[in-house]
């Protein structure tokens, strides 16, 4: 139990939560896109089950996280007239308004090759998926 109370462990868990929120932002925008498949939706449901199980473990280990149910990214879905992240397709403006305690989350965004990205989206993409950032565009 001592390992679970170390700062490195808490940081690791907080980073896992940040990754979950990247997925949650992508899901929020993707379900509105006509190209989203039932396989992707099934995969997102699996991720949600896994995260729920991890939260249960974190809770018993006294690692307190934000309640993810309180965070709704749907207010960041705008038309193409608003600047948006080229990975999750949500607005780069106002993300700090949907997070209850934005000091625990990275709300910064960056510009690369003329496209905007939330910093956590870009970080996750570059470190896990590919070394070149995509420039996704909304279908609608």
TrEMBL record:
Domain Synergin gamma C-terminal stretches: 2-136
Coiled-coil annotated residue ranges, if any: none
Residues spanning the membrane: none
GO cellular component: clathrin coat of trans-Golgi network vesicle
Record-linked InterPro entries: SYNRG, SYNRG_C
UniProt superkingdom: Eukaryota
PANTHER family named in the record: AP1 GAMMA SUBUNIT BINDING PROTEIN 1 (PTHR15463), SYNERGIN GAMMA (PTHR15463:SF2)
Protein name: Synergin gamma C-terminal domain-containing protein
UniProt source species: Rotaria magnacalcarata
Record lineage: Eukaryota, Metazoa, Spiralia, Gnathifera, Rotifera
